[in-house]
Amino acid sequence: MDAVERRTKDELATEIADLKTRRQELNDEYAGQRFSDEKRSEFNQLTADIKDREETLGELERREALIAEGARHEGAVERVEMPQFHRGGVARGEDIWDLGTVKRSWDDPSVEERDMHDRALRAVESARFPHTRADREDVQEHLERLLGDGEGGDRRGKEVALHFVRTGAPAYRAAFSKYLAGAPLSEREHGMLYRAASLTTTAGGFAVPFVLDPTVIPTSSGAINPYRAVSNVIQISVDEWRGVSSDGITAAFQAEAAATTDNAPTLAQPTVSTEMARAFVPFSIEIGQDWGSFASEMAAMMQDAKDVLEATKFALGSGTNEPFGVITGATTVFTASNTNSLVVADIYGVHNALGPRFRQNAVWTLNNAVADRIRQLDTSGGANLWVQNLQLRSAAVPESFTDGRMGADLLGKGVYEATAQSGTFTTGQLIGVIGDYSRYFKIVDRIGLNIETIPHIFGAGQGNLPTGQRGLFAYWRVGSKVLHRTAFRTLKLA
């Protein structure tokens, strides 16, 4: 029996929906254009596969109808009540994007949450990501973590699910591409764009489809912006993250029947506000009309601009209208012996100055110029500074180092290149940080990147005449903060 013929009705319906979604994506991508030979072949194959599965599904339904007809004759069959099974995490039905069909119950509000969660999972499963640096499986796992388990009580998970379903719909992506190209929009398309934009509670602008959104797709370049690779990164749907931190509880031994001492910790409530970042991307009218190439181009340009800006602010940001950088917040310093050089004792000194409870998960962030100076301190390996001493990143370095690690450990701790940190050897320079980023440096993304278009760009050197370009004004919200300053030590030149 053919593999398709062995499918259940539910499996066939799911496959048909997925195939139709992909066919619609191809049609949207080449709207008003001829297919390339490769895409035409794919489109025809999708159509044939849909027809094949619909015929098989129709045969199964006709067969069940005949059985049901026979069952109506008394005594024709012995009725057995079969349990009804539902495979969690998968929304049934062909149109997962139609929010008018979301299941609701007055008695149980979680019914709606679970259905929206299932639809969002389907949206993630069927998504294709044009980011050149995005690994499909890794991105899908990340997005599923953002959604949570769909069991209710997670405000972020509910809003993320709605964001994915609204901005992931083929019709939404088609409307978004028409908006960027300056093409007329129908009333329905305007409504779709505004409803999706309302999720980010911003005035004006339209939400970027989630498959292009750098606030939810992890694609950053570790060598440029290592902080996301080593820090505690979360996504929220509100303006501010609030947490709890303390210096820890002190335990003690005491005599039998003696009154216990009060070892309650002093609790602090750190907050991280999300500040607005902005970017402007000019593009030609021609590329705006070609959604297939523009999607990947826009994603790459936005991600690069975002990485460069955040790498600087996560390191040096003041915390006023911008993230609070690690150099700004890690105010506990270890001062080196000299004003313009390093010695081996400085490296051991700053490492030892970090508290024991923070050393276990600690990593270094250094400018490459500082790392090179440290390499020159220990060319023979006698000081045991570097594991795999002087080894630079190369094809021989394990794949796990491609997140920004420099190819070797320093005193047994990972080392990450941070281009925004100082590499200048002069008096008072802060040239390196060691600390527990994974628990005590918080990066908070507010989900949703919005875009507004500038219809025409005018050239100042050409009599202020149009240049045949449009512009994208993009904005997003992000914050960062050191939650516990003693979890870090900053190396300072004397």
Features:
alpha+beta, 15 helices, 18 strands, 7-stranded mixed β-sheet, disordered N terminus, phage-related protein like fold, 494 residues, 5-stranded mixed β-sheet
Account of the 3D structure:
This protein has 494 residues and is an alpha+beta fold. Among the domains are: 1-68; 209-245 and 267-494, phage-related protein like fold (Alpha-Beta Complex). It is built from 15 helices and 18 strands. It has a seven-stranded mixed beta sheet. Strands 1, 2, 7, 14 and 17 form a five-stranded mixed beta sheet that branches. It has a two-stranded antiparallel sheet with strand order 3-6. β11 and β12 form a beta hairpin. The longest helix has 35 residues, at 37-71.
Q: Low-confidence runs (pLDDT<50, min 5 residues)?
A: 1-5, 76-93, 389-402
Basic shape: globular
Report the major sheet: 7 strands, mixed
- Average pLDDT works out at 79
Present the secondary structure layout.
Blueprint: H1 9-29, H2 37-71, H3 110-126, H4 136-147, H5 155-168, H6 170-181, H7 187-197, E1 206-207, H8 227-230, E2 232-236, E3 240-242, E4 245-246, E5 267-268, E6 271-273, E7 275-284, H9 285-289, H10 291-316, H11 326-329, E8 333-335, H12 344-353, H13 356-359, E9 363-366, H14 368-377, E10 386-387, E11 405-410, E12 413-417, E13 430-435, H15 437-440, E14 441-454, E15 458-459, E16 465-466, E17 469-482, E18 488-492
Parallel strand pairs: 2-14, 8-18, 9-12
Antiparallel strand pairs: 1-14, 3-6, 4-5, 7-17, 9-13, 10-11, 11-12, 13-18, 14-17, 15-16
